[in-house]
Amino acid sequence: MPDYSERVAIDTESSTEPADRLRADMVARLREQGAIRSPEVAEAFAKVPRERFAPEAPSLAAAYSVNDVVITRRGADGRATSSVSAPWLQAVMLEAAGLTRGARVLEIGSGGYNAALIAEIVGPEGQVVTVDIDPFVTERATRFLAGTGYSHVKVVLGDAEHIRDGSYDAVLVTVGAWDCPWGHLPAPGGRMVVPLRFCGITRSITFVRDDDRFVGLDPTVCGFVPIQGAGAHHEQVAALAGGAVTLTLDGGPALDTAALDEALTAEPSELWTGIVARPDEPFDTLHLWLATHDDACTRRTPWWRPRRRPGLPQTSHPAGDGLDLGLSSGGKSP
Ligand SMILES: C[S@@+](CC[C@H](N)C(=O)[O-])C[C@H]1O[C@@H](n2cnc3c(N)ncnc32)[C@H](O)[C@@H]1O
Question: What is the value of pTM for the model shown?
Answer without folding.
Answer: 0.79
